[in-house]
Amino acid sequence: IVRVRPLTCTETRRGDRRVVHSLGDGAVHVSAARHDATFGFSAVFDAGASQEAVFEGSGMRQLVEMAIDGFSCTVFAFGQTGSGKTYTLMGPLTQSETQPAAPALLGLMQRSFAYLLEQSQSHGSDLALSASYLEIYNEQVRDLLSSGPPCALPLRWSKTRGFYVENQLSVDFESLEAIVSLLLQGAAPRRRRTSAHALNRHSSRSHALLTIHIRSRACQSITLPTWVSQSSACPSKQGTLCFVDLAGSERVKETGSSGELSMEANSINRSLLALGHCISLLAKPRGKWMHIPYRDSKLTRLLARSLGGSGITLMVACVSPSSHCLSETLSTLHYASRARRVTTRP
Questions:
Q1: Which residues contact 126 (CB under 8 A, 6 or more apart)?
Q2: Looking at the 3D structure of the chain, how many domains does it have?
Q3: DSSP string of 6-53?
Q4: What confidence tens digit (pLDDT) does each residue in 157-205 have?
Q5: At what angle do helices 60-68 and 108-122 cross, to 10 degrees?
Q6: Best exposed site among 86, 105, 192, 249 by fewest CB in 10 Å?
Q7: Any residues with CB less than 8 A from the CB of 343 and at least 6 apart, and which?
Q8: What pTM did the predictor assign?
């Protein structure tokens, strides 16, 4: 899906023109000098769309239900710095445990948590829920829920589990307040890396992955004969719901970054380039697949199952309507068009 944010005050004062328009039925049109293109997606939300409309129209309810049924589901937001990725996923950046966001402004994550717990209650005690929260900063995987400063964790691979993070902390939760508290704890500025530059006062300098682990046992309440193994008669289903807030794709010279900020930007761009390369290869017909280079970055390793495995993935492409951001907007829309052609077998 695509979400087009409103023009900012800075863009309006600068006299930027609006070059991105929703045509309805999942079509978005970009009109500017020497650029006139129409793209088709599952859904397009223009600047007037509410957070609730994005949640209801994006298919998030179905993803939550499929995660409960044992599927591996992923939602990731992609777009340039300042395009509204974190707002779409989480809501206002100013929210905290002491200052919660207004209900109308809550993002896809909190709304999905609420629906998940609503479904969990209807299943009784059959579901066990836990969460892990990681960030990838300068190609280091760090645990955002661990006590003390986030420290680098090793990324391993096994035949049964694929790529996984060793020693990551997983926290059980049973209430909406508990999981929202974990989200805000991990996203706090003292935990997740953010910085200010010319394009965004609160730019994410890392990719963040919050994963909800859902374990269920279909016949937990049934009394079985002593000679029947509970595990063989009632195999547990394990689903996941992963939210990925990607750092912004950006041109370093546009941000005015230097020193450490420039190094961070280059690291971000390298990992997004690796992600784009994997998506481009996966978008080819299955018979023409070559080697998919998941090992080129930590990000693509952790998203390998989401991109080309047996999972279900929703990409939220966030774009600016401003003429000043035209090249980045076109890049994002082309990126999303390629991702839409990727098919998996869940």
A1: 216, 217, 218, 220, 221
A2: 1
A3: PPPHHHHHHTPPB-EEEEETTEEEEEETTEEEEEE-S-EE-TT--HHH
A4: 998 888 999 999 999 999 999 999 999 988 887 776 654 444 545 456 7
A5: 40
A6: 105
A7: 286
A8: 0.87
Alpha helices by DSSP H, listed for the chain, are 9-14, 51-57, 60-68, 85-90, 108-122, 176-187, 230-233, 252-255, 260-282, 298-302, 304-308, 326-340
- Containing domain of residue 44, as a range? 2-92+105-194+202-219+237-253+260-283+291-341
Q: Answer yes or no: is 226 within a domain.
A: no
Rounded CA-CA distance 117/64 in Å is 10
Q: Determine, yes or no, domain membership for 269.
A: yes
pLDDT at 223 over 90: no
Would you say 64 and 116 are in contact if contact means Cβ atoms under 8 Å apart?
yes
pLDDT in tens, 84-139: 999 999 998 888 878 888 999 999 999 999 999 999 988 776 889 999 999 999 88
The residues, ordered by sequence, that sit 6+ positions from 238 with a Cβ below 8 Å of its Cβ are 70, 213, 214, 215, 216
CATH of residue 297's domain is: 3.40.850.10
Q: Give the pLDDT of residue 200.
A: 46
In whole angstroms, give the CA distance from residue 14 to residue 18. Answer: 12
**What are the binding residues for ATP?**
79-86
The answer as to whether 99 is a domain residue is no
Binding site: which residues? 79-86
How far, in Å, CA of 9 to CA of 259, rounded?
29
Distance CA 67, CA 306 (A): 13
Which helix or strand (DSSP H or E) is residue 323 part of?
none
User: 185-192 long-range CB contacts below 8 Å, 24 or more apart?
Assistant: 185/97, 185/144, 185/145, 186/133, 186/135, 186/144, 186/145, 186/210, 187/90, 187/144, 188/96, 191/144, 191/150, 192/135, 192/144
Considering the domain boundaries, does residue 224 fall inside one?
no
**Section 210-234 average pLDDT:** 67
Q: Which residue has the tokens 């951001």?
A: 325
